[in-house]
Amino acid sequence: MGIDLSIIWFTIIIFAILMYIVMDGFDLGIGLIFPFIKDPVERDMMVNTVAPVWDGNETWLILGGAALFGAFPLAYAVIADALSIPITLMLFGLIFRGVAFEFRFKATEHHRPFWDKAFIGGSFLATFMQGISVGTILKGIQVTGRVFTGDVMGWLSPFPLFCGVGLVLAYALLGSSWLIMKTQHALHDKMSQLTKPLTIALLIVIAIISIWTPLAHNAISERWFTRPNLYWFLPVPVLVVMCGLGILKAVKRRADYAPFLLTLGLIFLGFTGLGISLWPNIIPPSISIWQAASPPQSQGFMLVGGLLIIPVILTYTFWSYYVFRGKISEDEGYH
């Protein structure tokens, strides 16, 4: 029995997406919670917590997209057609946010409010479109043969839009819990106060999506509620509630690291549930990873490069976060 390269590449893509969600999630989340902080000094501190590392976080998005293109070209083509508008808007949001991130430090006091608004708007647009894209894929994409035949505006439906709201809340919670870990004094207290309602709101959204998904999709319902899968899924909602309550308790006792780590656990559980719901389809409801895969020769050739580059990315990512570990103060800056 040979090695199934399709499963290996699917695992690599899932890992890259999860790394992107975790690492760029709190980065985007800082932009989402910018409107709650009016003090320019505190805003500078918020941005300075990610200034040394933010541009490297999107490496994982590039890796995931390139791997999808090479390993599953049919899936890449269908997703590019079905989600051309939200993906384009997401890229505009990421670009505009990146420009605003750099320009706000160099702008005059008169122009800085404009770049702050651009930072907020770009962060929201990128996050909301990512959530819509995930919701559209989970809802299912109509494919005839090997061609997308659905509605290019199908992403403008209630379930994907609600998933967009859910991801905005998830990234905002990542951002606030990250700032609890990285800041101190007044800003730390403000983030602790903000984390409480964000946690409760995200738990409510997760509950609604967890009910909505099986009701709207029979295939997912059968996968969730048939044995032995049911026994594997039962601990998930319990763990989600435990993580949520853990965040609230950690914030109450003024913990520094626990809120962020528990938020990562909450995101991981949600992402894992999404992956299990779709497996083995890469384009639900009918295209599996094997149907969408490129020839084994192509996947094998790519795997050589992937096994070389992924450890390098992991190493410099770990090193950059290690170098800039710890809390920051008002007089620290990286621009």
TrEMBL record:
Record keywords: Cell membrane, Membrane, Transmembrane, Transmembrane helix
Pfam families: Cyt_bd_oxida_II
GO MF annotation terms: electron transfer activity; oxidoreductase activity, acting on diphenols and related substances as donors, oxygen as acceptor
The keyword Ion transport is assigned to this record: no
Compartments where found: Cell membrane
Transmembrane regions: 6-37, 85-105, 117-138, 158-180, 200-217, 229-248, 260-280, 300-324
GO biological process, one term: aerobic electron transport chain
GO cellular component, one term: plasma membrane
Topology versus the membrane: Multi-pass membrane protein
InterPro entries per record: Cyt-d_oxidase_su2
Family that this chain belongs to: Belongs to the cytochrome ubiquinol oxidase subunit 2 family.
Listed name of the protein: Cytochrome bd-I ubiquinol oxidase subunit 2 apoprotein
